[in-house]
Amino acid sequence: MSLLSVKDLHVSVDGKQILNGIDLEIGEGETHAVMGPNGSGKSTLSYVLSGREGYDVTQGEILFKGENVLDMEPHERAGAGIYLAFQYPVEIPGVSNLTFLKTAVNAVRAARGLDELDAINFLKFAREKGEILEMKDELLKRPVNVGFSGGEKKRNEIFQMAMLEPTLAILDETDSGLDIDALRIVSEGVNKLRASDRSMIVITHYQRLLDHIVPDFVHVLAKGKFVAQGGKELALELEKDGYAKFGIEDDADQAA
Amino acid sequence: MAPPAETAPVFEEAAKREYKYGFVTDIDSEFAPKGLDEEIVRFISAKKDEPEWLLEWRLTAYRHWLTMQEPKWAFVKYPEIDFQDAYYYAAPKSDEDKPQSLDEVDPKLLETYEKLGIPLAEQAVLAGVAVDAVFDSVSVATTFKEKLTEAGVVFCPISEAVQTHPELVKKYLGTVVPYTDNFYATLNSAVFSDGTFVYVPKGVRCPMELSTYFRINAANTGQFERTLIVADEGSYVSYLEGCTAPMRDENQLHAAVVELIALGDAEIKYSTVQNWYPGDENGKGGIYNFVTKRGVCRGSNSKISWTQVETGSAVTWKYPSCILEGDNTVGEFYSVAITNNYQQADTGTKMIHLGKNTKSTIISKGISAGKGQNTYRGLVKALAGADGARNFTQCDSLLIGDECGAHTVPYIEVANPGAQVEHEATTSKISEDQLFYCQQRGLDPEEAVSLIVNGFCKEVLKELPMEFAVEAQKLLGVTLEGSVG
Amino acid sequence: MPQNENTASMIESFDQVKDTLPGAWLLDTRSNAIRSFEAQGYPTPRTEEWKYTNLNRLAREGFHPASDIGSPDVSDWSDLRVNGASRIVILNGRYDAAASDIGEMPDGISIAPLSDAMEDIAPDLEGQLAQIAPFDGGGLVALNTAFMRDGVILKLADGVQIARPVQVLHLVDAGGVALAVHPRTLVVAGDNSTATIVETFAGGVDTAYWTNAVTEIKVGRNASVSHVKRQAESVRAYHTALTQVRLDCDARYRSIALATGAALSRNETRVAFDGSGAEASLAGGALLRGRQHADNTTEADHTVPYTNSKQVFRNVLDDGSHSVFQGSVIVRQGAQKTDSSQSNRNLLLSAGAQAYSKPELQIFADDVKCAHGATTGDLNKDALFYLQSRGITTSQATLLLIEAFIAEIFDELPEGPVGDHLADAVSAWMEGAV
Q1: In what order do the strands lie in the sheet with A16-26?
Q2: Which of C150, C232, C246, C248 is nearest to C198 (CA)?
Q3: Measured between CA atoms, how close is C159 to chain B, in angstroms?
Q4: How far is A116 from chain B (nearest CA, A)?
Q5: Tally of domains within chain C
Q6: What is the pLDDT of residues C79-89, one digit of tens each?
Q7: Using a CB-CB distance cutoff of 8 angstroms, which residues of chain B are in contact with residue C353?
Q8: Do C and A touch (≥3 CB pairs < 8 Å)?
Q9: pLDDT class for A180, splitting at 50, 70, 90?
């Protein structure tokens, strides 16, 4: 059985159809890349999987571990093991990264039937995971994403992923806005988190991220539908020939 | 009234929460007859065995009060108060022979404080907090007397101080908040029944945090406590105040007066966590909290710092202020005020710069939820002599739901070209982005709101002494319970 | 409540003026207005809105709506004319045809002195005049309603653009008479129309007088009205003015009000948003010296969603002068997506000067952006030193910094004769400072 099973998914936002029949099966431990030009519906896919409000499923279903997630609140999905690394991480002034994570870690632990971590064990755990992402202590103490550089924000997203130990991680344009060093740290972090019991959806516009995080499958999204699917070589083709090969203009202006 | 359809479902349900401290203690109370006239004032004074000068002062205040009208300028609405329909004095009966130590305190009272989580008795020892507990209008116990006495610190009910340190009380009482000050302060001057007195001698750093817990227990009772804190030259004291009241359908009046006097190089830090009963989710019952708090930095280089977390009361009308008389004196005001359901708060501060190079900082965080109305009202005044005066004011309002209100009314009056006064204010709501981000990390909507609100208030909460900060954070969460679906 | 015998005599003199304009409906309105004034009297500092401006002296002076005063020569004030503008001169409260120059107006524009308009189109004005600013809005607007004799009516049909600014030049030179004038201006801008109105106030220094103006402005859908006010009254004068604006959907209103004159002035601007997408920008301030007192009071009342307001006020205070800024932003329940900002800065140049600032927000809706800021202080010492280090004298440097400070209120004003008109006011004040 697939970990995630998306069938004939249609999604509209403010009455406008964005996804037009997505089918996606993700098995345990698999890494899938979803590529597509701006406006193809990539972020919509990540939001509808994680349960953001305002994304109306007009048709189709999403099963996660065999359960219908459409009835679940965002925090319930997080508890069940779905994690979204945001394209634009949100600032929460006054709340330190550590406080935020301690609350989050214990919330998902409770949802998964695990005991709360006490302050000492939590700190130990945070330091351990922080090393993977080269997170300085100072970053842990600062308010969530406030005053973080673009690279620090993305590292923080992957750090949180390490802490929350999801079974399905969705990385929404994690490479956007990163210079080459930051990209290396982030993708190394992601690779260290790959595991047989953890699947990933890597959403990206560019192939370069996939040089670092090598996917098992690649899906090409355009106008709300997958127009091509294949192995990692598909990404290379795209890099070489561009989206035009699939009859898609890669133009931000045509964004839906 | 249902919010419009586009409102996020998390905001939808009307606020429903229970007031944790809403129990009534069954104790025989001794009341003065209902209503207010000169006889009642004399009765209260006689009960306290007060000297003639104090009775005269009360009577002068009472006569002045008769000429005054209730202030109407605040953004609060409440039915006309019938000042004749309340008891102006209520004491637990056992006050007749006052307890000499904690062991002698009525166990029911101690139980009450236990429920309140007050660190009286042993808890006090552990927490290192000296507690004066005012129950209805009478001070019932003061812990830690010995240790304080050793340091020369006077910390006792003001009724006791009138007997034991009459010269100090006479010298300072009414010098910061005169009996003519305002309607409620004048009423308090006439009928105050107890409160706390603190005197910290020259050069003494008070060895522990001092603390008073107030509780209104009796029905139809007004509480009029009076607190007077004098920090003599070069001394330091940190004082904490907590307040609760039982759930009752009718409204109860709390009109306290607090006077702080910091002499040269002295520092007073005054923290309040106010959690009077706010009324139910339909706005029935609750405390009218009409309080006058003012401090004067009388000597140079002195400092007064107010920190308040206001989560309770049906109506709050309160402006803890600093008169910066001495040169190089410092005034601070840190405030968090939350209104939920039908609560109304009109609160802020006054910073009056008289001396040279005086500095003041105002950080105010207002949170409105349900149908709550929250007003910051603050005056910053630099007089002609206040060369080099500096003020910085930051007022932020957070709205949760679309039926509440957040208002900012600053008054800035500058009469000295060398003064620099800056005021900034913002109004915002908890963004959908923040809520979703937190939820995606596994927090339920209520946890998410509580976390975001605590972050919003951080600058103020960090000013509270540690043990209070934890309590305050919990209170914020409790107060907002039910404000999200 | 009438405060003194002058209030009473003011009420008595109503009989002399009540019939000076035709129209039975107007007489009704005026009679109600004088009763309203009788009931409330002059505003006092006991009302929160008048906390910082005391009209006691004005109320005691005993200004009177004069019967006819001869027409003095107004050529002394020719430098107050805005070049190229269509001009209406109101002298001592009455239309001065000889000094006015309305010029040719394209079709769809009607512009006339109030006295003429009432003779010609009184029925049309019923339901428009004294409706946007009703007389029950306060003692002063009640008085203006009761005593108005002249002013300007400007109406723009849908889609009409006036290229030339319209200037209304209010002059008072009443010889020895303690005159009170109550000019009334009504601007009705039809949908998609555009107009620029300049109001200029000045007067002779011989006697104290009182100008109590009311300006009503209705801006139609997607129409745009720019409103510039230069208040250069005599330093012995009292000046009180209310501008009340109503904005339909997508309407734009921009005002800049600069005061350099009057012993005491109060400039009140109130904007009500009736339609989504409307925008108001209120700017203004005062350059003051001596014992002048200038009060700018504003209100932006957001009642519908998606409206914007911006307020920028700057005051420069020398000697023993006083400035007041009372800005208020109200966002009513349901007025979601309101975007509003408010900024007040005051520059104190002298030890006797005093600035009072009360930037107020009343917010009853949650999805809004509202911010305000206020600062008061003296000139930036670092900037001053920097300029001095470049060889600029202290007094020149001071003037440069003052000019830069006050210029923030002109930000949105295009270059041209209207801008020059305000720049002249600044220069005139600067000359007095040297």
Answers
A1: A16-26, A4-13, A55-64, A67-68
A2: C232
A3: 36
A4: 14
A5: 2
A6: 999 999 999 99
A7: 415, 417
A8: no
A9: confident
Asked whether residue C353 is assigned to any structural domain, the reply reads no
Q: What is the ipTM of this complex?
A: 0.87
Nearest to B414 among C346, C363, C372 (CB): C346
For the entire predicted model, the pTM comes to 0.84
CB contact under 8 A, A90 and B434: yes
Tell me the C-alpha distance between C211 and C203, whole Å: 10
Packing angle of the helix pair A97-111, A119-132 (nearest 10 deg):
110
Measured between CB atoms, does B439 come within 8 Å of chain A?
Answer: yes
With b for 16 or more beta-carbon neighbours within 10 A and e for fewer, the B384-404 pattern comes to eebbbbbbbbebbbbbbbbbb
Residue C23 lies in a domain: yes
Residue B460 Cα distances to A165, B411, C182, angstroms: 34, 22, 52
The parent domain of residue B369 ranges over 8-479
Confidence of residue B31 (pLDDT cuts 50, 70, 90): low
Q: Which of C213, C240, C275 is the last residue of a domain?
A: C275
Amino acid at the residue C158: D
Q: Is residue B484 part of a domain?
A: no
Q: Is C283 inside a domain boundary?
A: no
User: Which residues in chain B (38-97) have CB-CB distances under 8 A to chain A?
Assistant: none
CB contact under 8 A, B440 and A53: no
A15 touches chain B (CB under 8 A): no
Q: Is residue C328 part of a domain?
A: no
Instruction: Please enumerate in sequence order all residues whose Cβ is within 8 A of that of C404, keeping only pairs 6 or more positions apart, or say none.
Output: none
The pLDDT tens digits of the residues spanning A203-255 come to 998 888 898 999 999 999 988 999 999 998 888 888 777 777 776 765 543 33
Within-domain flag for B163: yes
Parent domain of C415: 382-434
Do C151 and C12 share a domain, yes or no? yes
Token pair for residue C6?
A: 């002058």
Contact yes or no for B443 and A103 at CB 8 A:
yes
- For residues B367 and B480, is the Cβ–Cβ distance under 8 A? yes
Domains in chain B: how many in total?
1
Identify all chain A residues contacting B447, using CB atoms and an 8 Å cutoff: 103, 107
CA–chain centroid gap for C288, Å, is 16
pLDDT tens digits for A64-84?
A: 999 999 999 999 999 999 999
CB distance C223 to C254 below 8 Å: no
Contact B455/A143, CB-based, under 8 Å?
A: yes
Residue C311 near residue C300 (C-beta atoms within 8 A): yes
Nearest-by-Cβ selection for C376 from B404, B412, B425: B412
